[in-house]
Amino acid sequence: MQPLSRYLPILNWGRAYDRHILTSDLLAAVIVTIMLIPQSLAYAMLAGLPPEVGLYASILPLVAYAFFGTSRTLAVGPVAVVSLMTASAVGQIAAAGSAGYLVAAIALALLSGVMLVAMGIFRLGFLANFLSHPVISGFITASGILIAAGQLRHILGVPGHGDTLPAIVMSLAGEIGNVNIATLAIGAGVLAFLFLTRKHLKRLLVASRVPGRLADMIARAAPIAAVAVTIAAAEALDLGARGVALVGAIPQGLPAFGVPALSLDLLATLVGPAFLISIVGFVESVSVAQTLAARRRQRIDPNRELIGLGAANIAAGLSSGYPVTGGFARSVVNFDAGAQTPAAGIFTAAGIALAALFLTPLLASLPQATLAATIIVAVLSLVDLGAIRRVYAYSKSDFAAMAATILVTLGWGVELGIVAGVLLSLLLHLYRTSMPHIAVVGQVPETEHYRNVERHAVLTSPEVLSIRIDESLYFANSRYLEDRIAALVAERTELKHVILMCSAVNAIDASALESLEEINHRLTEVGIGLHLSEVKGPVMDRLKATDFLRHLNGRVFLSQHEASLCLRPQ
Amino acid sequence: MQPLSRYLPILNWGRAYDRHILTSDLLAAVIVTIMLIPQSLAYAMLAGLPPEVGLYASILPLVAYAFFGTSRTLAVGPVAVVSLMTASAVGQIAAAGSAGYLVAAIALALLSGVMLVAMGIFRLGFLANFLSHPVISGFITASGILIAAGQLRHILGVPGHGDTLPAIVMSLAGEIGNVNIATLAIGAGVLAFLFLTRKHLKRLLVASRVPGRLADMIARAAPIAAVAVTIAAAEALDLGARGVALVGAIPQGLPAFGVPALSLDLLATLVGPAFLISIVGFVESVSVAQTLAARRRQRIDPNRELIGLGAANIAAGLSSGYPVTGGFARSVVNFDAGAQTPAAGIFTAAGIALAALFLTPLLASLPQATLAATIIVAVLSLVDLGAIRRVYAYSKSDFAAMAATILVTLGWGVELGIVAGVLLSLLLHLYRTSMPHIAVVGQVPETEHYRNVERHAVLTSPEVLSIRIDESLYFANSRYLEDRIAALVAERTELKHVILMCSAVNAIDASALESLEEINHRLTEVGIGLHLSEVKGPVMDRLKATDFLRHLNGRVFLSQHEASLCLRPQ
């Protein structure tokens, strides 16, 4: 494979491009464009940005991803969770609606893009592993709840604010007397329409003999119908004059290309949030991409995906956009609509560009309540209460990390929430592995097998202690090993030999090596032999490069049985 | 065992106390007292505190540890590294010598004591596992260098300051013209004397037929001789008038008992440093205690040690002292001198109390250079360059954590140093385990063994892929597993079955479970069966409690051979 095509996957799929693939890609692009228009406007509103910024973030980033991304069918653009994180990060710096707010959002996209590309080049994709599944799942559920609660004010037509659930609820409670009935009618109507179509339209269409795939597409176009109908209603009934908040004039045309003046102070403030957005966006995107790639036995390369997403975010920053990532719903639509190559993304970008050029005047009368309803319906599908139950049933410590993520996200905001979840899951992981399973073993009579003395009737001797260690040895558990062996030795007065059975030890780090030396040293002082058995090849290779085997007062045996035969009292 | 004696180990050893043990303990106490007097004064100076504070920290804390500690022979009191950390933490709040400085040091002792007790009660001793051996070793080496460099100004008799190596060196370089010759003569003389006695005195005494243990004791008393001789010289030659800095008047008597007025602000500022001091002190102390206990086949309980050390620090805070912990050198002396029980600590405390009552007037003429030389000789034994070499040879990633700890400690101070080391070792651990060893295996001909296809001549089939996973599956490596399996499957077009051989998988957390479900789901979509073999009992028990086995499109086999026989094409 040529080096260049490794970095520009477009050179691979571009070579085989033909008319058949073009047709598939074009069809998918039309469908995704129709879905993306209301979504882009809505997510920009969620991020506290002017609606056109959502459109801008759906043009150049898609082209950039098409050149550098490794997924054939991932659809990038503004997504709900990243929009919420943008609002939270930028809201701490500038007031929504101010010029500084937009500049900060652009800076966030650029920073996040540069970070993603750097992580890709230095192959730091493993950093995403810090986010365990329960933490991500809890974070997305909590974000969905926060977003939905935050949009309620648009449905009710009241002012409101707040980045946390208590603040949002308090703010709404204070305004409950000022609800705008016309706004509520629009908002509740669209909500009901979207929920019903999402739940029943496809089934009804299929029952009326519409083919499944077409029915699915029609159902997914429901938001655009809601947009069209409520624009018509707003104009016909002059809802703007009745206090219904409308989207208002959207600048017509394509975004300017360039970088606004950015202060170092601003960039320094945004480094932390940009990092969190990058990681969360990457994790979300890569899991979607992987799921879709597997369906067609294709592959994606996570470290190369970082570069693709980074390029998309830099493109967003260069064209007055804000942070983007691969979205789940739109990627599935793209895939199901038959997209074959990233060219579908380029066609979608062209579609959105046409919308920015020609459709924006039509959108001035769009009620904000319609967009809010679109967001609420989209994000409530992110709330996964079943996952909470499943994690609780499977593992209490995973559940603790998940619960902490949800509570801190709801109560103190998205940034603290994700950090709390990551720290707690690391802590719990270290806690778990810091006390590895260590079993005293004995010989199963008349066999060469050695099993836990507490579970099996086995033969042991008061002079020989055989200990099986069921975990790799590293700094978090090496001291525990010292403690346990000290305890086991202290209670056996006739002891002459200790055998460590290492069949499940995949690695020994420098801390654990030092602990083993310490154990050997202490046992030597009281005249007890330390022996190893069943040491794995790679572990043995490492040990051979040290002084340990020379200091070891006992021997290394290939098998536990051999050790036992040799050391048992005659 | 009665619950009370679990919390007050004194009830265990106190019952068997007799005249023979009393004699041993008294002798040890006399020797440790002689060693502790100059050390206490010196370490108080290192911490930036008045000399009497060092004595105070060597009275009540020893009594408290004797009641609550589980080690029979650990000697607690001021130690070098903790004194340096105290100076660093308190120096950020108040000027050395001010009343606020002493209050902050007392607050640090109280906070650290409360934290240690709380960690003991909640059994959080595992937190110390965050400090890997290479990080501790690097931290202690760097601290030793920092301390020695910082004491040079007392040897040279120049003013100076700085918490980092560059700052100390710059500060000394600026003062090099102002060296006080009389001070340098004392300092260099004592340094040479202490180095020579430490290196050669014991050997010379033994050659002169002095018994080994006695020779050892005499050699260890060298610092007290240096103290006596330089006091006499200072008085005879009126060195104070020649610009030699003397210790000056030390208040005579015992410390007052009580808590100074502490502001919440002060406590809040000190929480971080107090935590680091607690952890570092605990790790140092517990490793000494464990080494000594093992020599007599005794045991210590790390979580109970936390309570003992916590009680000692609270006692230090209540009696105008500063943070203490178990010291290596003094504990070894105590042990070698024959201490049998913690009563030796109580007798040592009585000895130091007598010194505070009656000896302090004699110490007024003690040159500070003598104390500085004592410190330098003591801490240079902490610098372990051999450990750096050994770690480098054994593991590059452990070495990276160690080097970062040393460089950051020297360049940015002790607190950042230890934090940098801990974070880097966590990161590297996650990085290592995030890419577990995964081997494609095949059958060794005519056996039931399955080995790595890359290392052995084995039989495989294009329709069956057997993968052995050599690590427990958890959030940090579950995504890697998805990637690897996706890659292995994508390159095999005839594939019908994947077998995961789980013989080395000791645990599967919720993230890994979800990844397995995802893998199963993706393989199902392309018509490939997923099977497991050699799943360990406890892992299987957990899996049985979930839906996973019901969703699994293949089977779970007891042995890899059984799986292979069953799935191989007929």
TrEMBL record, chains A, B:
Topological category with respect to the lipid bilayer = Multi-pass membrane protein
**Name under which the protein is recorded:** Sulfate permease, SulP family
- Give the stretches traversing the membrane: 21-41, 53-68, 75-95, 101-122, 134-156, 176-196, 217-237, 270-294, 306-324, 344-364, 371-393, 399-428
The keyword Membrane is assigned to this record: yes
Q: Which GO biological process categories is it annotated with?
A: transmembrane transport
Q: Which GO terms describe its cellular component?
A: membrane
Q: Identify the CDD domains for this entry.
A: STAS_SulP_like_sulfate_transporter (cd07042)
State where the protein is found: Membrane
| Top-level taxon in the UniProt lineage | Bacteria
Main subcellular location of this protein, as a coarse class:
membrane
User: What UniProt keywords are attached to this protein's entry?
Assistant: Membrane, Transmembrane, Transmembrane helix
Domain STAS residues, every copy: 454-553
